[in-house]
Amino acid sequence: MNRLADRVTGPVLAPRDEGYDEERAGWQTARRHRPDLVVGAAGPADVQAAVAYASGRGLPVAVQGTGHASAAVAAEGGVLITTARMSAVRVDADAGTAWVSAGTRWDQVVHRAAQAGLAPLSGSAPRVGAVSYTLGGGLALLSRTFGYSADHVRGLDVVTADGRLRHVTRDREPDLFWALRGGRDNFGVVTGMEIDLMPVTTLYGGALVFPVEKAAEVFGAYLQWAATVPEAMNSSVALISLPDVPAIPEPVRGRHTVHIRVACAAGGPGTGERLVAPLRAIGPMSDTLGELAYAEAGSIYNDPVAPGAVESGTAMLGEIDAAAVQAVLDLAGPHAPVPHVVELRHLGGRLAHPPAVGNAVGNRDARYLFNVVSRLERADIARIRPAHARMFEAITPWSTGGRFLNFMNGENAATQVRSAYDAADYRRLTDLKAVYDPENTFRLNHNIPPGRGLIRG
Ligand SMILES: Cc1cc2nc3c(=O)[nH]c(=O)nc-3n(C[C@H](O)[C@H](O)[C@H](O)COP(=O)(O)OP(=O)(O)OC[C@H]3O[C@@H](n4cnc5c(N)ncnc54)[C@H](O)[C@@H]3O)c2cc1C
Questions:
Q1: Are 299 and 401 in the same domain?
Q2: Which of 63, 311, 404 to mutate to test the pocket of ligand 1 (most atoms within 8 A of CB)?
Q3: Residue ranges of region Disordered (predicted)?
Q4: What are phi and psi of 134, to 5 degrees?
Q5: Probe ligand 1: pick from 105, 133, 314, 442, max atoms within 8 Å of CB?
Q6: pLDDT of res. 202
Q7: What separation in Å is there between the alpha carbon of 122 and the centre of ligand 1?
Q8: Same domain, 93 and 57
Q9: DSSP state for residue 153 in the 8-state scheme
Q10: Of 259, 261, 262, whose CA–CA distance to 233 is shortest?
């Protein structure tokens, strides 16, 4: 350990050391890493030293940005590399790109990009880590319009299991470049990425909130509406049981509600307003729709900022009908409020198209992403887990069998990894894993195990 501490700029902490708990803490508090060593990397050289140290001793390596994911496998032992100190954004306004370091949050990128009249493909929660979000696919607020965030990566710097820092692009180590965009943490620690920014400064967006008693009408109208909207329109519908806390405004505080969230940044002036007219006609109890700066887009979902313990699950769905809505409402409607959020995000549009430079993100044929989330502070895990299991069983007839990596958390995540990928892509990922990480040093994650190693790097 001492020798490693001599070779890195950031702190190297063991469980007995002061600062260890702070260093391993993340947003998600349900499952915490408890590594033998945590290395607070200050730059790529620290990451290289930590990976080489671990590889040389046969120790597994985990990596943590903001800790928003509930790790499929929390590190018990091994080396945890934290990247919060590696937080930097460089925007090239002429090229329409940004260079983003490993520990950067989306809100930092949004802020810098806005100064150049541009926006990244960030998601509902601005404080999520930009790099791991993107490596896991990245379902953005504007993804139906522009595609997955992973579809707009130009280059990556990555430290692989052999301790080498590699710069990979479509032309340089293209197999590794393909695998990292979707395969996330299985091939190395990404220290920075170059991404495209979109020519977006404002959008039309916000939320319509309805009482849960209107859930059947709202879900029915939403599905009919979603089937007709152009790819300029991005949206979701969710049953949300809101806590009775001062942070939630009246009249929705403490209520079981239905939210339709909307983000539209294309199609010309007035497009968003015109498109949402049929939804407004249902008569929401709260309506925040309007023009807003992209930098304010976090207000659309108002995702929680404070750390918390969350149990969640996800499934990709195909077309859904009234029977699917009924199945969901039977289990999460007015009389059964155990899951705190039950959400359908509308997919399709550009998400269904293969990207200009292929990547490992799978399930592009799905029409909806189904998410179920519960806060452990508000209900017992013994009630939450069976309630979630019933939800996913009920929705099975409409499931494509696929899942989205970024929302794949909870108790079964480790066994579900394969479902994030198309079958041939998963085989290619396991072959590439055998080339770049044959000892599975990066296994404290949503793991893709090494295959037979048929591909040469
Ligand atoms: C409230 C909330 C809202 C969300 N909204 C969206 C959304 O709209 N769209 C969406 O796509 N996702 C969304 N997510 C999921 C989120 O994008 C993923 O959980 C993401 O991985 C979080 O990244 P992090 O760095 O913040 O978390 P971490 O827990 O630090 O990292 C997550 C995983 O990524 C890996 N990782 C971290 N850094 C690196 C690195 N430098 N190199 C390689 N691997 C790395 C780690 O192994 C870790 O297991 C949301 C999550 C939450 C909690």
A1: yes
A2: 63
A3: 1-23
A4: -70, -40
A5: 133
A6: 96
A7: 12
A8: no
A9: E
A10: 262
Query: For 361-380, how does the pLDDT look when each residue is reduced to its tens digit (9 = 90+)?
Result: 999 999 999 999 988 877 78
Measure the CA–CA gap between 370 and 391, rounded to whole angstroms: 10
Q: Please name every residue paired with 163 in a beta bridge, in sequence order, or none if there are none.
A: none
What pLDDT digit, counting tens, does each position of 78-129 carry? 999 999 999 999 999 999 999 999 999 999 999 999 999 999 999 999 999 9
Q: Is residue 446 part of a domain?
A: no
Domain extent at residue 45: 10-82
Question: Residue 249 belongs to a domain with what CATH number?
Answer: 3.40.462.20
**C-alpha atoms less than 13 angstroms from C-alpha of 251 in its C-beta half-sphere:** 8
Q: Is residue 443 part of a domain?
A: no
Q: Residue 456 pLDDT > 60, yes or no?
A: no
**DSSP characters for 194-239?**
EEE-BS-SEEEEEEEEEEGGGHHHHHHHHHHHHTT--TTEEEEEEE
SS3 category, 178: helix
Same domain for 50 and 157, yes or no, is no
Q: What is the whole-number distance in angstroms between the Cα of residue 128 and the centre of ligand 1?
A: 6
Q: From the CA of 65, give the closest atom in ligand 1.
A: 30
Alpha helices in 246-375 (DSSP H): 271-280, 322-332
Per-residue pLDDT averaged across 401-430, rounded? Answer: 91
- C-alpha distance from residue 205 to each of 81, 105, 265, 269, 273 (Å): 37, 22, 8, 13, 9
Residues 48 and 155 in one domain: no
Q: What is the pLDDT of residue 70?
A: 61
Check whether residue 358 and residue 396 sit in a common domain.
Answer: yes
Q: How confident is the model at residue 72 (pLDDT cuts 50, 70, 90)?
A: low
Q: What is the pLDDT of residues 252-291, one digit of tens each?
A: 888 889 999 999 998 888 999 999 999 999 999 999 999 9
